[in-house]
Amino acid sequence: SDYLIAIADRSNNRIQVFKFDVIRQTVTFLHMFGDGPGTRHGQFDRPAGIVFNPVLEHIIVTDKDNHRVQVFDLSGSYLFKFGERGTKSGQFNYPWDIDVCGITHNILVSDTRNRRVQIFDKLGRYITHFNQPLDSPRGVAYFGPSQVLVSDFNKHRLVLIVRSDDEQVTSSTSLVATSGNGTDYLTSNNNNNNNDNLLLSNIAQDKAITRSQPLRQLAQAETVQQTFYESKFIGFGEGSSWGEFLRPQGVTTNGSSVFCSDSRNNRVACWNRDTQSFSYISKDIVDLDRPAGLAAIDNYIVIVDFGNNRVHICQYLMSMDSYTWRRVVTFGTEGTETGNFCRPWGVAITRYSDLVALSPPAWSDYLIAIADRSNNRIQVFKFDVIRQTVTFLHMFGDGPGTR
């Protein structure tokens, strides 16, 4: 039951990987990879997003300033890359965050300056993209196989993109603000029947969301028979009050819970789909400075504290309509040595028990990988749940570079 946590240590241009031991409640550094900045295979120039695919035993990293995605095995050995700078399908202009669908293994990437989100298969082959009503997509997360969450950094909001298939799909109740008439039709980019191969084409007019505008309540067990994407907004736009955002960044999900780094409000927003309620992780739990990447698993959330060059692991319990939080452990400080960070952004976590290739000392531990952005490397740590400690394992990557 241990977990792996990977953190994109952005300004160090590396990824750091840790183990979280659930029973001992400790985090242990395992290893890190990457250096730079550089352009060679395995080198980074400001890595940002990071995610595990525990089934394929991959660590996948958005190499932001090299305009590509790199894929590694769990030890940090380079496997392959995809993407290059450009505006065509499959190309990137500063890709930022990344997620993997646990069912299809498709890869979701926020292509920030192209103002779109792209979807690729597990080998990095382009499938589709959608671009409206997005302005500056930053964090991305799958919310099940047919829903995608995107934080729109400049528009100060969360966007929920819902796909309904030709087959009947039952949607859960959702209280969100909608754009226009709420229906966004699609055209296929090829002739096969893959439901992911659909392009968002006719988006309803984007409208500002304010408290005075009504929220749309989807009917319980609503049955949809057309194939379309529908864009909806979670929250009430720019601000610092309840339900508002100021420069939202990282996004992650866990069951019916959605977590988003509300970076300029120095808090993490928690939205529950079932209860339609917001709550927050803020200075009464942990002191944050522009929180960035997030990763959630079981009842833990890992928060990259970008401005403080450190990482927090928090644990939560849920009641009917609220979360009860406690900080478990904090690790990292500014620097270039092992376990140090320089402007980290992305983080990924997985259970040791989900990784066939590893034989951990305790199945309750977690593996954590961190994109150490300005150090151009990835650092890997172990979180020991019993001891509540974090231990460095290894690191990989260098740069900046594009090789």
Automatic annotation (TrEMBL):
Repeat recorded as keyword: yes
Keyword Repeat on entry: yes
Cited PROSITE patterns: NHL (PS51125)
UniProt-listed GO biological process terms: proteasome-mediated ubiquitin-dependent protein catabolic process; protein polyubiquitination
Entries under Pfam families matching the protein: NHL
Naturally occurring in which organism (per UniProt): Aceria tosichella
NHL repeat segments: 31-75, 79-123, 331-384
This protein's name: Tripartite motif-containing protein 71
Keyword tags: Repeat
Single GO MF descriptor: zinc ion binding
